[in-house]
Amino acid sequence: MEKEIDIAEKKYNWFTMFWSGFTSMSSMSKTLWIVAIVKLVIMFFILKPFFFPNVLETNYDNDADKAEHVRTELYEKVQPSE
Amino acid sequence: MDLLSASAVNWSRAQFALTASYHWLFVPLTIGLGLIMAIMESLYVKTGDEKWKNATKFWQKIFGINFAIGIATGIILEFQFGTNWSNYSWFVGDIFGAPFAIEGILAFFMEATFVSIMFFGWNRVSKKMHLASTWLVFVGASLSAFWILVANAWMQYPIGMEFNPESVRNEMVDFWAVAFSPVAYNKFLHTTFSCWAVGAAFVVAISGWYLLKKRHTDFAVKSMKIGSLVGLVAFVMLAVTGDGSAYHVAQKQPMKLAAMEGLYEGKEGAGLVAVGMLNPARKNYNDEVDPYIFKIELPKLLSLLGYRDINAFVPGIVDIVDGGYTLPDGTTSLSFQERKERGLKAIQALADYQVAKEEGRDADAANHEIILRENYAHFGYGYLETEEDMIPNIPLTFYSFHLMVMIGMYFILFFMVMLYFLYKKDMVSNRWLQYVALWSLPLAYLASQLGWVVAEVGRQPWTIQDILPVQAASSAISAQNVATTFILFAVLFTGLLIAEVTIMVKQIKKGPESEGLKA
Hints:
The complex is a heterodimer of chains A (82) and B (519). By secondary structure, chain A is mainly α. Chain A has a domain at 53-82. Chain A is built from four helices and no strands. Chain A has helices at 14-23, 27-51, 55-59, 63-76. The longest helix of chain A has 25 residues, at 27-51. Chain B is mainly alpha-helical and 519 residues long. Helices cover 69% and strands 6% of the residues of chain B. In chain B, strands 1-2 form a two-stranded antiparallel sheet. Chain B has a two-stranded antiparallel sheet with strand order 3-6. Chain B is globular and about 75 Å long. Chain B starts with 5 loop residues before the first helix and ends in a 9-residue tail after the last helix. The interface between A and B is large, with 47 and 60 residues.
């Protein structure tokens, strides 16, 4: 059984809690952190900029141009194809 | 132009479906386990029994693995909105933006903050503070789901907005109508209970495995009791909220209801298909082939579920396409051709409005705006070529719905039997039931996925019901690009899933007494 700490006597501040939490992690917790960080790096620094550009943000400078592009798209898509 | 093709749309749809399906493997367990560990910790705080504390800590470790691997997988869906669905994103921007922003700022950060206290705070904050943190993790995850489901519900039942022809956007005029639409809150409840159900099935399955291995039997029985109680409540409530879903679908998406039931010819006092097999020889919506090879129906139940009247008329696919039946509001339904004509009028009016504005003909612009508003409810039909385009995949919707319901019924019975054996008999010696508990887990995940198949396949071709079909919502990008990212995601998510299962199995094998995750 784990020893209960007398909270009233031993004042922990938030920093202490997080610091001791991070520094005493098990190997599995460290593995999970690595997996999560690698995943986020892949998502935000590889997939997002190289594979998932925002089409409207990339090609148009202002809202009026974006609106005009979408308006044209919405109109052209009902035209019969050749 | 060759950039825009049907295959690009279909790749985009497939990619979204793949990403959402993988994401939905992680979310239900986060919410479901969140509830179960909060209940267990409450029992620990109330009774002081260390066994409940150990049980809580074990399930928190499993929760932590799922949380760490699954975190932010949903963000990829947002990437796809900007790339593959840019017309859609612009068209709905304001309405989608608000719930997503609230989800990101409030719910997710709340969840993330209290997760760290939950893991790092044992013996470092008071028992009550820790318990509150555990509950707030569950509440935060549920709130996060709520705002995402509000956005999804709006797509199924667009409400609280006004279309601005100047900005080509639907702009929110009533936040509360969007946030608390009847479809949204029912969808939230139904989806949340499905998460509880998956969490409960998971806990019971892992506990069943421990009993089969004759390890940690006291822990396993305790966990099974909580899991089975949560599971029974969840599946009963899924039936109740499923009834609410059927009602809303009947009112707002009658084609989806017809697809769920394989109902081609509408009728008064329609029965609900309990078991049935569709006839693959039926190729078109209006041919004369019997749609079923066989079916067993519960008389009048579909009318009762859909319209709260055992003799109500339930329109079939043919009725919805041909129109002419009386709608719940007393008006007469329009045919596909009438709606298509009105959709084309609305689309033309949108284009004419802008031309008139640019040429300074304000009176003409105002007239075009009036035409647009009068026909806006049918806007999306202008993009559909034939009647078949407004019909979703019937076999996929039908079988997904019926299999989901059958699994739901199975689990109600399963958890009742589990509780009987847990409280009245000796669960530890019933190996057959332990095997059933273990092997029922895939069924819970399957039902959870099938629910989304029914909701999303059943509403095709619409991204926004009646307003914007998929072909108009998609970006003008090449199919090859989308296919490439589809494969990238398939590899990434499969890798994550393998990592999750591997780490989780390792942790489960260590068991509840292992220190494993010290954090």
